[in-house]
Structures are given as structure tokens and as C-alpha cells.
Amino acid sequence: MHFRSQRKLQGEVSLADTLETAGEGGSLSLMDVIAVDDTMLEDLDTRDACRRVRRCVDACLDDRERRIIICRYGLDDHPPQTQREIAARCGISRSYVSRIEKRALEKLAAAMDGWRPG
């Protein structure tokens, strides 16, 4: 029975297994060789932040502000556009787009400051 259980484990490798022994008693393990880019927590934080921003855009901005922010920053899978492109599309001046964008960003910043995880 012991040999059967050992046979099942035959293909398994531990990260602590030694690959080679260095000169002065040091050893090199698989853990030392394998580099892991663990960005899972950062990815989750980024995803959470994007959801919060998107909720704020929907809740805090009027239709024109929302449309300009979506176009300007490429939300909803749209490519980001310049103020000049947005102005031409909306039939308003570039400076007016700039003022609307600034006001919308101030609203979003205020809403995000007041947001608490719940």
C-alpha cells in the first residue's frame, strides 16, 4: 500500500525541492528560480476603482457631461477623443468642451472623495 501511494506522488514536485547545491552549503530550489508576477490584488483594486468611477459618471453627471467624459476618456469601449473631435461632433467650441470636462471632473472628484466602501 505504501508503494502505491508513493507511486501516485512520483510525478509531483515541490517548490522547496533542491535543484542543485552551491559550493558553501547553499542550495537552489525551484522557488528561487520561478519568478511570479502576482498582480492579482492590484488588478482587483483597479477593477473596483473602474466600477466606482463608472457608477459616479452615471449618477453624478448630466447627459452632456457624461457624453463628454465618455468620449474624452474612452469609456464604454470607445477610443479616447480629443477636445477638438468632441467639439466638432457635438457642434460646440473646443473651449466649451474644456469647461464642461473640467466641471464634470470636479463633480467626479467630489463624489469619489465622499465614497466609502460598504
From TrEMBL:
SUPFAM superfamilies cross-referenced by the UniProt entry: Sigma3 and sigma4 domains of RNA polymerase sigma factors (SSF88659)
The family this protein is said to belong to: Belongs to the sigma-70 factor family.
Upper classification of the organism: Bacteria, Bacillati, Bacillota, Clostridia, Eubacteriales
Example of a GO biological process term: DNA-templated transcription initiation
Any GO molecular function: DNA-binding transcription factor activity
Domain HTH cro/C1-type: 82-102
Protein name, as recorded: Sigma-70 family RNA polymerase sigma factor
InterPro entries per UniProt: Cro/C1-type_HTH, RNA_pol_sigma-70_dom, RNA_pol_sigma70, RNA_pol_sigma70_r4, RNA_pol_sigma_r3/r4-like, Sigma-70_Factor, WH-like_DNA-bd_sf
One Pfam family per UniProt: Sigma70_r4
PANTHER family: RNA POLYMERASE SIGMA FACTOR RPOH, SIGMA FACTOR RPOH HEAT SHOCK RELATED
PROSITE patterns membership: HTH_CROC1 (PS50943), SIGMA70_2 (PS00716)
